[in-house]
Amino acid sequence: MKKKLVSLDEALGPIQSGSTVAIGGSLLRRQPNAAIRALIRLGIKDLTVQTWASTTAVDMLAAAGAIRRYEGIYAGMFGFGLAPNFRRAVQNGEIEVRDFSETAMVARLRAAGQGLPSLPIKTLFGSDIALRNPEQFREYNCPISGEKLLAVQAAYADFTIIHGYVGDEFGNVQWPIVRDSDDVDMMMGAASKRLIVTVEKIVSHDEIKRRPALTYIPGHLVEAIVEVPYGAHPVSTDGFYDEDEAHLERYLQESKTPEGIRAYLDAFAREPASHEDYIAKVGGRAALAALNVKQGADA
Amino acid sequence: MTAELDYTVNELVTALVASEIRDGDLAFVGVGTNGRAFTLAVGIPLVALRLAQMTHAPAASVYWGNLLEPDLSSIPDHLRQDSFTNWHAAASPADVGYKCDMLMRRQFDVSFDSGAQVDAYGNLNITALGDYTKPKVRLVGCLAQPEHFAFVPRPIIMTDLSQRTFVEKVDFVTSVGHARDGRTREDWGLGPGGPSIVVTDKAILDFNSPDRRMRIRSIHSGFTLDDVLGAMSFRPVVPDEIPQTPAPNAEQLRLIREKIDPRRVLLKV
After folding, report:
1. Which residue of B has its CA nearest to A296?
2. At A134, is the secondary structure helix, strand, or coil?
3. ipTM of this predicted complex?
4. 3-state secondary structure of B50
5. What is the DSSP letter of A73?
6. For the whole prediction, is pTM greater than 0.80?
7. Distance separating alpha carbons of residues B85 and A28, to the nearest angstrom
8. Of B136, B141, B150, which is closest to A74 when you measure between CB atoms?
9. Do residue A242 and residue B82 have CB atoms under 8 angstroms apart?
10. B9-260 maps to which CATH number?
11. Where are chain A's structural domains?
12. Best label site of A49, A269, A294, B159, fewest CB within 10 Å?
């Protein structure tokens, strides 16, 4: 087995402006925010992003002017409302948007995972999601049954970034027994070409080996794994820590104006030289420990 | 007839929604947002389903987030992640692909959906107001709402009545209702389905009209036909006789207030 444990900047090094990047997590869970802040610090731009239900990751990238095109099922702030910076950029015509419903996005990821160009769904007949996107949706009749189907293009990404729970130095990533499974990270990992995983904690390979059925991202898929505690902050990692509501409120406050969010990104993404600097900036490990939940990192 | 009961509009529509639930139904409830939107998308549906379980539909169940049959006798009190993570349920499939497959195979009976715009034929918009490529207001996208309208036999729309929301034609059809642009959902290639009723703060509407245009089914006590029509940008079908929305009974109110939502977390606003 090959050792894949590297630093965050080493892991993200190959990502160039103009790439297509799939981003894991769902709603206020496991958005790979540490990696997203690093991409902003590194000045990566012109991205096509593919997401499930995205909140902070897409909104911060939009605030940094780093997204050329968005493809996903949802971009908002869950209980905190609409995604302010994504919304502003789309309304200004700065981001090209393609929406996909859940069965469409699942079909796209499964197609990529199987090496197929497309898979059919039966969902979006008559919906503007398909009618306004003839490049990525095409009606056809099943050559076996004759049934009318809608082909949706596979979601191939140049890079995939996922924030996971724990993993070993070989890139095997495991979920805890009790978790919130409302996401598609396993599927997104299986569909990836170059997969970068950040995890809350690196554990020994011996620990991973004892419960192989908990490995949802096997190391053979992974190009780089990075230990990034609180790597989803200010959102949650289920089983480890809750979302930081005060910080999210502050983020929304700063997002009211382009100047406000520019200053926020300077302070929290561009100026900290590393994730450790970011942690210090938001109050240090001791302050973040207040967000911890019963099981998890400190259990 | 017993003495007149005092109840809120939220309690009224919760009892009405409960009466729409049949024994054995599997209902999809979204994870919602906050404030009034949360009450409509999550609060009322969860209380109504629990009420149905405790009265006429003990075998009704819920798919919530990615939890199949969460324990509705202990609905979390607050909405932070860890409450969801540790909510007891019969199953939490490995990922959401499982729920998507169940939807396409038409295994759900009921769903709850809201939108920024609803039109006369039950099309819903949660994607964008104005032009799609450079919208006036960019909304959240679509989630699984198109799936609900495509594959669930009885979706229930939960939206407060307002002229801004109830429009003749939505700016963007996220989810196809009963017809659009003069073609029925079947003409477009969808199977049977489309929204069954529209639950609002002033009236209940349905699509039981010859061309499946939205129709007033009942009006809540305290509101007039003019109140309802004045809060819509299009004219729905208005039957000659419009009944009053049935009031909740004393037992339903007792269950809602004392057993299901005693701290008024779900029916707060």
Report:
1. B82
2. coil
3. 0.96
4. helix
5. E
6. yes
7. 12
8. B141
9. yes
10. 3.40.1080.10
11. 8-99+156-291, 118-153
12. A294
The neighbouring-strand residues paired with B184 are B179
For residue A206, give the H/E element and its range.
helix A205-210
Rounded Cα distance, A184 and B93, in Å: 11
Contact A117, A153 (CB under 8 A): yes
- The HSE-up count of residue A187 (CA atoms within 13 Å, CB side) is 27
Tokens of A225: 């794994």
Per-residue pLDDT tens digits of chain B, which is 269 residues long: 445 679 999 999 999 999 999 999 999 998 877 789 889 999 999 999 999 999 999 999 999 999 999 999 988 877 789 999 999 999 999 999 999 999 999 999 999 999 999 999 999 999 999 999 999 999 999 999 999 999 999 999 999 999 999 999 999 999 999 999 999 999 999 999 999 999 999 999 999 999 999 999 999 999 999 999 999 999 999 999 999 999 999 999 999 999 999 989 899 88
Question: Are A21 and A161 a contacting pair, CB within 8 Å?
Answer: yes
Q: Is A99 on the interface with B (CB under 8 A)?
A: yes
Cβ contact, residue pair B151, A123, below 8 Å: yes
Contact B141 A99 (CB under 8 A): yes
CATH class of A8-99+156-291: alpha beta
